[in-house]
Write a structure and sequence with these properties.
Length: about 250
């Protein structure tokens, strides 16, 4: 029996129509972008309190800007991997394969590898590297260069730009859209996330409460693994294309 049918075989569901996918740092790991909590990950190299909180930015804006300038430059040298590409195929073919079918892609990642892979609709709930947020006029501008030299905001001219990243203690973006998508979906799939950070880590429980089938694709079991109907372990570049092929070619 192929793994793809296990959710169906257990009667957990019929063919899903609306699918919500949540991705985390693990989907970009094989593109050469560090994850946060794996061995040698970002939060082993840097203290969250120094670089990823509004308090850190108020205390030492140069340290924070330098950290994100470095990551913003690095991300632009990386390429999408087969996991990103497989999700693009699903986004494009699922509505054709299943009348009324739809895929909502929510990511915790701040890189643009989903978009460079070809994804057209991505909800970046934790913000984006390639966006700058003006704390004077609240405008957001596409931005691919450094911010440490305090450039002027393209909208208001004030040198008040910060990384458009949701820091710890700040409210994630587009939560209403995410909840609405979950409330209309049949299947929730989590890819490459440790389930360590809320509210994203709580989506699987909400999905279960809403009666969705739930599937986890990850290198190792996440903190929320017990809430998933099914967990498949492996590298995203292998298990995500296999899952998508299983769904589209079934
Ligand atoms: N394929 C699949 N999964 C992988 C791979 C891979 N090649 N490499 C690592 N993983 C898995 C790890 O097993 C781990 O469960 O990806 C997960 C990465 O977890 P984290 O580093 O905690 O990243 P993430 O869950 O995305 O972090 C959530 O925390 O620091 C904040 O805002 C930041 O969005 C981030 C949030």
């Amino acid at each position: 029996m192929t793994a793809a049918r296990s959710l169906w075989h257990e009667g957990a569901m019929t063919t899903p129509h609306k699918i919500v996918i949540l991705t985390g740092a693990g989907i970009s790991a094989e593109s050469g972008i560090d994850t946060f909590r794996d061995g040698g990950g970002l939060w082993e190299q840097h203290r969250v309190e120094d670089v990823a909180t509004p308090e850190a930015f108020a205390r030492d804006p140069e340290l924070v800007q330098r950290f994100y300038d470095m990551r913003r430059a690095a991300v632009q040298t990386k390429l999408p991997n087969p996991a990103h590409v497989a999700l693009v195929r699903l986004e494009r073919e699922w509505p054709v394969r299943v009348p009324g079918g739809d895929v909502t892609l929510v990511t915790q990642n701040v890189d643009d590898l989903h978009e460079r892979g070809g994804s057209l609709r991505v909800i970046h709930m934790h913000g984006e590297h390639l966006s700058a947020w003006c704390t004077a006029c609240d405008a957001r501008s596409r931005w691919d260069g450094p911010l440490i030299h305090r450039p002027a905001c393209p909208a208001c001219g004030v040198p008040a730009l910060r990384p458009d990243i949701v820091w710890f203690g700040e409210i994630p973006y587009r939560m209403d859209e995410i909840h609405e998508a979950l409330s209309e979906a049949d299947l929730f799939v989590s890819i490459g996330t440790s389930g360590a950070v809320y509210p994203a880590a709580g989506f699987v429980r909400l999905a279960r409460e809403l009666g969705l089938a739930t599937l986890e694709l990850n290198l190792e079991r996440s903190q929320g693994s017990g809430w998933f109907h099914e967990t498949r372990l492996g590298a995203a570049s292998e298990i995500v294309p296999a899952w998508v092929d299983g769904l589209l070619d079934a």
